[in-house]
Design a protein that fits this description.
Blueprint: H1 4-20, H2 23-32, H3 36-39, H4 42-73, E1 100-105, E2 124-130, H5 137-146, E3 155-158, H6 165-168, E4 176-182, H7 191-199, E5 202-211, E6 224-228
Parallel strand pairs: 1-2, 1-4, 2-3, 4-5
Antiparallel strand pairs: 5-6
Length: 231
């Protein structure tokens, strides 16, 4: 078994190697279906490649991330500290759980969609899933339906990135109670700029919950954190 420090250094390379194995079948699929537009567009090829890769890897990632993410959304994380596994929800809940109107940033294949159901978060009224990668939308839509969130449009997929959200007109400024982003800020350009834009969608007193693989992403929030919008 490798020492923890060495394992952490090698992990990104291992992860990239796994990702590379999904590139040839992505190209082959485009060739077999005659989708030459994807083959000739680096951005579309990258999106299709990621969709194929994340459909396989995403569920495995969720298993390892659940001990951080579930307490975060339930309001049991304080100052980036996750309570011990033995701590119950009722005995330690320093903050309100995710509720009201929610922006989920980068839902990907929908691996966290089931957490927005009444069984986990009973006070959610509406979720907007901000996901610009349309190649992954079928997987996301399937997870939304499996969770029963497609009824009455409770979960709405918004096919744009953060930078195009205002132009889309799909979500009004200062209309959101909670913003949730899990393992997304580490994969988008200019996280500070994007988070600043998202801040404008929060109602006064609205909250943001984020989990990221970065050591420091915004306002020195590390791994698991939350912040509240000041009126």
């Amino acid at each position: 078994m490798l020492p923890p420090v060495l394992a952490s250094l090698l992990h990104p390379f291992h992860f990239m190697a796994i990702a590379l194995t999904h590139l040839p079948p992505t190209i082959l699929s485009a060739l077999l279906t005659g989708d030459f537009g994807t083959l000739l567009s680096p951005s579309r090829l990258r999106a299709a490649w990621f969709g194929r890769f994340w459909a396989v890897v995403g569920p495995l990632v969720r298993i390892h991330a659940e001990p951080n993410v579930i307490p975060l959304l339930q309001g049991r994380v304080t100052h980036g500290v996750v309570p011990p596994p033995t701590t119950t929800t009722t005995s330690s809940q320093p903050h309100p759980p995710v509720s009201g109107t929610v922006l989920e940033i980068g839902p990907g294949s929908g691996m966290w969609t089931s957490l927005f159901t009444p069984a986990h978060l009973p006070s959610i009224d509406k979720v907007y899933g901000i996901e610009p990668n349309t190649d992954i939308h079928p997987l996301l839509a399937a997870q939304v339906a499996a969770a029963g969130l497609d009824r009455d449009g409770k979960y709405e997929i918004v096919p744009v990135g953060i930078e195009a959200l205002a132009e889309s007109g799909r979500v009004a400024r200062e209309s959101v109670d909670c913003i949730v982003t899990v393992m997304c800020l580490c994969s988008i350009p200019e996280p500070r700029r994007n988070m600043a834009q998202l801040y404008g969608y929060l109602k006064p007193g609205g909250r943001c919950m984020l989990e990221s693989r970065l050591a420091s992403v915004y306002w020195r929030m590390r791994n698991v954190s939350r912040y509240r919008k000041v009126a």
